[in-house]
Amino acid sequence: MVRALSPELAKIAKDELNENPKQIANDLQSIKEWISKQPHLIARTDDQWLLAILRGCKFSLERVKVKLDLFYTLRTTAPEITLRLKPTRPEFLQFLKLGTCLILPQSASSLHPSVIMIRPGLYDPDKNNVADVMCILYYLVQILVMECDNATVLGTKIVVDYQGCTMNHLTQANPATLKKLVAVSQDSLPLRLKGSHHLNVPSGIEIVFKLISGFLNQKAKDRLKIHKTSDELLQHLPKEIVPVEYGGTGKSIPEILEYWAQKVTQHRAWLEEEMRYGTDESKRQGSMPGAALADQGSFRTLDID
């Protein structure tokens, strides 16, 4: 069983995502049958999870197959990101509570994409890595799309605040790591990115932006905006969801982090099961999706001037 959408979201899903409530059951069954015929694929088949991926792919079954395969392939071939911090371990919650990654509450008064805030300058680069931030995002997003219809229908926006970032943070963003980070976030997660907003951008970040832009699709490039102040950022987000620390009227960052810490704890059994999924590459028939991601030698050279 899957949740019924509100009338407003149902109309958007129909108009923008090709969603047909009468067809969902057949689509879900088709995906489950396809998964059962893939000897290498060890995948979750919860209806709500598969529906999130359907929406992320605008109900193209062929795109769903590619995304599902890539999602679980990266679980196996990119464990330095997808399994870096195990969400059932105390270290996960400890890093979560640093506040490097949080998902803002939904707007109560408007239909707006979910907003994910990344603050990489808060972690100690001598103790942690930018991949830890992505690992937190990776699991929070899975909880989000299972619970939040706004996220699956309206998409997401990313806000990155670089306050506190040092050259030690920036040098961790090498091409090999960045390519896998983008593959995990842009290509494998069931998200539709509706924009990215960058705040407190330090000097020296240009090279990282150029590296990232080499891996982003054109829509993501077009939707990337750099803001000089929090006031500029507020022009793009509902003020009621923006934390008070950023000039909004929403909950404080500690309150939002506590909410997500509780969510992770509540989903412990679900997350334990999730970590058992992946791929058995010895049983794969055919080529691996995004095969270059598993082969460091095949990263293309980027021209950076």
Provide structural commentary.
The protein has 305 residues and is of the alpha/beta class. It has two domains: 7-80 and 274-289, no CATH class; 87-266, Phosphatidylinositol Transfer Protein Sec14p (3-Layer(aba) Sandwich). It is 47% helix and 10% strand. The protein contains 15 helices and seven strands. The protein has helices spanning 7-17, 24-36, 47-56, 61-77, 79-82, 90-96, 130-147, 149-154, 167-170, 175-188, 206-213, 218-222, 230-234, 253-266, 268-274; strands at 41-42, 101-103, 114-118, 156-161, 193-199, 224-227, 278-279. A five-stranded mixed β-sheet has the order 2-3-4-5-6. Helix 7 (130-147) packs parallel to helix 10. It is globular, with a radius of gyration of 19 Å. Mean pLDDT is 88; it is low at 291-305.
CATH class of the largest domain: Alpha Beta
Helical residues, percent: 40-55%
Question: What would the average pLDDT be, to the nearest integer?
Answer: 88
Which architecture of the largest domain per CATH? 3-Layer(aba) Sandwich
H and E order: HHEHHHHEEHHEHHEHHEHHHE
CATH superfamily grouping of the largest domain: CRAL-TRIO lipid binding domain
- Strand sequence of the main sheet, in spatial order? 2-3-4-5-6
Q: What share of residues are in beta strands?
A: 5-15%
Quickly count the helices.
15
Shape: globular
> Which structural class should the secondary elements be placed in?
alpha/beta
Report the uncertain regions. 291-305
The profile of the biggest β sheet is: 5 strands, mixed
Number of strands: 7
- How many separate domains make up the residues? 2
Instruction: Quote the distance from N terminus to C terminus.
Output: 52 Å
Radius of gyration: 19 Å
**CATH fold group of the largest domain:** Phosphatidylinositol Transfer Protein Sec14p
